[in-house]
């Protein structure tokens, strides 16, 4: 179960990274989206680290 959850988290993290890479091209337009995506990715990374221990 933990492995499938880790894989799901990895997928979500990768999707958010792609979003951030898109938004970073126009930071003045997507400021709020960048902040929101950054916060989400922080939470997911922390959860991934916690579960992988």
TrEMBL record:
Gene3D superfamilies: Helix-loop-helix DNA-binding domain (4.10.280.10). It holds the Pfam family SpoOE-like. This is Aspartyl-phosphate phosphatase Spo0E family protein.
